Input
Amino acid sequence: MNNFFIILVHTYITKLKTKSFLVTTLITIAIMLALTNLPNIIDFFNKDSENEIAVIDETGQLLAPLKDQMKTVNDEISLVLFDGNMAEAEKKVEEEKYKGVLQLTFNEEQLPEASYKAMSIADTTIPGDLQNALQQIKTTIASSQINLAPDQLAKLYQPVSFKKAALEENAKTEEELNQARGLVYILLFIIYFAVIMYANMIAMEVATEKSSRVMEILISSVSPVKQMFAKIIGVGLLSLTQLAVMLLVGYFSVKQNEEKLEAISGFLSFGDVPAATIAYAVIFFILGYFLYATLAAFLGSLVSRIEDVQQMITPMTMLVVAGFMMAMFGLGQPDAPFITITSFIPFFTPMLMFLRVGMLSIPFWEAALGIAILATTIAVLAVFGARVYRGGVLMYGKSNSFKDIKKALQITKNV
Output
């Protein structure tokens, strides 16, 4: 057992000190800080930029109501009356005196029409906001032409009352579904990136030791099962360390910008999420990690060169990608038969079963069966993987295909 902890601690400390781990962590934290502070960053770069729009109002009536309407649509856009023709206004735009020029006219029915010109129309925000404001004005004018009173117009555009209720016993409310969707969405990304990053790290670790012939010494003093799981748990602890740092930074950064991130505050509010859902999230994350980490460990033992690692674990990566894509589809239709069936396939269970647990009120036995299938698959992979691992680490030369698994098993019998 001492050898097990020696390898575990050595794997953890060694990877913790690597430049790649530190750089990846710092870059991820920087990206997270940038995303949570995005409103502040946008404000910083926009504080000196002028969103003044030159307006040529040929009607003499539309500019005033348009200014009033823009206060509710986008108060950062400033409309300035331009005393001149379109050619002169275009020249001012080219000289960067104005962001763009807006020409207002009436059509034959005395309804507003507009023409907007700018140096580039790639940015659709300003013209879109101007169009929305003009649409409101057009609606008001058109309603007055057909003698609609303001209260009649308000009634006409009043949203239809549409209430949703689930008849299923213990079904989640719409608010609970939104919160669960946020948690599921975040966990799916964590599982996806954790498996892609850390499973690859395990395979690379095994291949690196093989290439230095250290494995021949280790395999003679430590059993393959201990060695394999020491590396898996060591990298697992490393992943938890990195995730803990990133989640803490992200949490405090969101708290600091809570007012400006109001649009996603409900999406990221997990205060009312049931404890059972959080527990399932932890269980499926851990089981999903061990499933793919065990798979990656013995696949990595089949290659002798670091260059061959990616080729060997590509099918495993494709399984993760497929599960992730199905889960993204399932966020909109978690009760689809396709999602229900595939949630019992062990390589997709961590993502799809948690999706169903989080979004639906499924029977306990279904979640328990999914956990049992995962645990059984991990046990089978551990036993089979340990045999492949023991023979695989003694194989050298170029790895060509998964036929090398059979060769590794034969070597294990002769050891």
